[in-house]
């Protein structure tokens, strides 16, 4: 069978968007209600495709208020059911968080399986969690999400077969009753607490030799991993799919000042990120909380980048790091036209904390490294005059490797050196310092 005749085996889904008219007008003056609601559905489609779905169609409803029983109202529920039957979809994904009552009523009214936005995100996280730590955190979030939805016993649990919204390490536990699930949650929380202590011990070990942590944050699919790879020479997975990076990666680089810092590639943020997910991934997000500098990466080619940045700042505020030193990086400038790039270049000249980059082509990366070097305050540079024996090759090599030699003279078996060095290195050479 050739490629054109191959069967698309992705799960067919129907998307349902529900937007409140008052909220939409507050968000986007001048845009039509349907246009703003469609933007939200477009993001849901990206999420669904990241989970491996084929989007067969979508339905958007504008309401003055949400129906507490069915979210969309009985009449709209029948319309969605007819659309799902027409398009032969076994799964409907709703761009809203559903209460247990709404979930049950929608499934009965539509006649097929229904999941909400949070469950879809949890499913994507389950697919992309490769480390034991990541799998534990996903399982904890899944069980906390499912616990209040176990009312109805076997009817609810009978849904948990295969397909999008049911995958992940927590799947095998879903046949248990509430008591056993709570026991499993307590066990996972204890395991994650152990991970947190191990991370704290590693951080203390790193802090014994001052290494500033630089955390890359941003909206999902902003290009953080590609930028991280370009700066560190790593091979972290990069993908156009949302949440391709879940497990954090840390790499050391040397700055132009010869100081060494750690770069951390973190999970991407997203609009209305479920609070339970932030709580479950606390051990991972602590890398952001410990960062000396936060690099906020923006996909400047995305027409909704301003709103995405607002969502990122909201998550940073929830983590208690909104006031941390921060650099703004406008990434993917290779996708902009000449006039757009010219306008941005003028704006960046007026804003010293804004850097234009293309992780794909390498444009702007030297400028980004220089700005990180000028901004990070860990292990500051000091200027020293040193008198060192010519026979002390170890410490002479240390000066050249860790610092920048400004002047060097040889006299009477000694090197007289003036150099800029990180403070931690200067302490190691204190015996050679001239007043």
Task: Report on this structure.
It is a single chain. Strands 6-7-5-8-9-10 form a 6-stranded mixed beta sheet, sandwiched between helices. Helix 2 runs parallel beside helix 5, helix 5 (117-128) runs antiparallel to helix 6 (132-146) and helix 6 (132-146) runs antiparallel to helix 8. The protein starts with 10 loop residues before the first strand and ends in a 7-residue tail after the last helix. The longest helix has 31 residues, at 178-208. Helix 13 (338-350) links the parallel strand 9 and strand 10 (354-356). It has helices spanning 21-27, 33-50, 74-86, 100-110, 117-128, 132-146, 154-157, 178-208, 224-232, 275-280, 282-289, 305-318, 338-350, 365-375, 393-402, 423-428, and strands spanning 11-20, 53-63, 91-94, 113-116, 212-218, 249-254, 260-265, 293-299, 326-331, 354-356, 381-389, 404-411, 414-422. It has 3 domains: 10-208, GTPase HflX, N-terminal domain (Rossmann fold); 209-375, Rossmann fold; 381-432, 2-Layer Sandwich (Alpha-Beta Plaits). Mean pLDDT is 80; it is low at 152-160. 43% of the residues lie in helices and 21% in strands. By secondary structure, it is an alpha/beta fold. It has 16 helices and 13 strands.
> In one word, what is the shape?
elongated
Arrangement of strands in the largest sheet:
6-7-5-8-9-10
Element-level helix/strand string: EHHEHEHEHHHHEHEEHHEHEHEHEHEEH
| Largest sheet composition | 6 strands, mixed
User: How many helices in DSSP terms?
Assistant: 16
User: How large is the radius of gyration?
Assistant: 26 Å
Strand pairing plus helix content: what structural class? Answer: alpha/beta
Instruction: Identify low-pLDDT runs.
Output: 152-160
Name of the CATH superfamily of the largest domain:
GTPase HflX, N-terminal domain
What is the mean pLDDT?
Answer: 80
Measured between the Cα atoms of the first and last residue, the distance is 81 Å
Q: What CATH architecture of the largest domain do you see? A: 3-Layer(aba) Sandwich
